[in-house]
Amino acid sequence: MNNKFSRGQIFAGSLLSILLLSACSAPKAESPTTSTPAATSSAAGDTLRLLYWQAPTILNPHLAQGNKDFEASRITYEPLASFDKDGKLVAFLAAEIPSLENGGVAKDGKSVTWKLKQGVKWSDGKPFTAADVVFTYQFVSNPSVGATTAANYQAIKSVEAIDDYTVKINFQNPNPAWSLPFIGSNGPILPRHIFESYNGSKAREAPANLIPVGTGPYKVVDFKPGDIVIYEANSFFREANGETENLDSSEL
After folding, report:
1. Is 1 a domain residue?
2. Which of 34, 62, 133, 162 has a 20 to 30 A CA-CA distance from 194?
3. How far apart are CA 220 and CA 229, in angstroms?
4. Is residue 45 part of a domain?
């Protein structure tokens, strides 16, 4: 099965089917320079059905209660980067992976600076910027929110937007685990303009917990918690900016 997201639909249901999930595991990602463009029409063959033994109940990764919620959220939300099956960081919302060589990782180990991709949009058409990364930290670290991913951010002293597309994470102490925050299934970035009014004890009341606004290749069009989620292609995904991307299942 080609691992490039099509423009059809994804159905995530609640029936047990381990064999189907195994059969649907994507192979290693193709090179973006050689992959075939996604189909622009929707047909019966463009629908992928994922059957889980337990259905998701919330689509906010930072309020997730298990893999069922993390994986359902990851289809719509993206982290700065994620590890592939070989343990290599792969950029998603980041423009590049920080390192000592490119100056992204501070020599004293007390900060890391991320360059962000430009031109990325949320599924409602609003631009993605460094302010969304800063807000995500504020949301996750707010004890009134009760984020289930908060442990990944405890070593942080502050997160600051250097400019619209540069974020600096300052750690309390030298931190060899600089790649923990904003990475993988625990690190998706939330849209500030959607969640800012719910950064506190009302976090679980946010409408976007059920109909998320993300930067990923799909958007949710119908969600019945504990039953089924229906996704359709996000028309604002980066293909609209001349950039096509593959998603390897090992890079979630």
Report:
1. no
2. 162
3. 7
4. yes
